[in-house]
Amino acid sequence: VQLQASGGGLVQPGGSLRLSCAASGLTFSNYAMGWFRRAPGKEREFVAVVRRPGVTSYGGSVKGRFTISRDNAGNTMYLEMTNLKPEDTAVYFCAGAPMSRILSTLWGENGYDYWGPGTLVTVSS
């Protein structure tokens, strides 16, 4: 199984960025897909998870600004990030978990079986 996140970069406060996570080696539609992030000096933090298209859950700090989605035909998950703030600066990781796992377990990193290597997002003027 391989998960490859991309789309990170430098963006100004208030700007937008879209991350992608390409998956291979698994039946993508059978997996819940999540995004986590690790800011410098902090623990890895839950950002969002999508189970079936439209069935989503978000961490409190990003709710209303970030949108998670998935394209099962293309084996890809996305994170649309708007109104970015300096505190959103972090390495963003995508992860996969069997769809059968209950939602509350998907809010923590232990709920996931597969991880990608991460992409760096820097929000700075």
Walk me through this protein's architecture.
By secondary structure, the protein is mainly β. The protein has no helices and 11 strands. The chain has strands spanning 2-6, 9-11, 17-24, 31-38, 44-50, 56-58, 66-71, 76-81, 90-98, 114-115, 119-123. The strands form 2 sheets. Strands 2, 4, 5, 6, 9, 10 and 11 form a 7-stranded mixed β-sheet that branches. A 4-stranded antiparallel β-sheet has the order 1-3-8-7, with no helix packed on it. A hairpin with a 5-residue loop joins strand 4 and strand 5. The chain is globular. The model has no long low-confidence stretch (mean pLDDT 96).
State the helix count: 0
Which value, in Å, is the CA radius of gyration? 13 Å
Order of helices and strands: EEEEEEEEEEE
Proportion of β residues?
over 45%
Q: Give the tally of β-strands.
A: 11
Distance between the termini: 37 Å
Cα shape: globular
Helix content: under 10%
Report the sheet with the most strands, covering strand number, pairing sense and barrel closure. 7 strands, mixed
What would the average pLDDT be, to the nearest integer? Answer: 96
**Unreliably modeled segments:** none
In terms of structural class, how would the helical and strand content be classed?
Answer: mainly beta
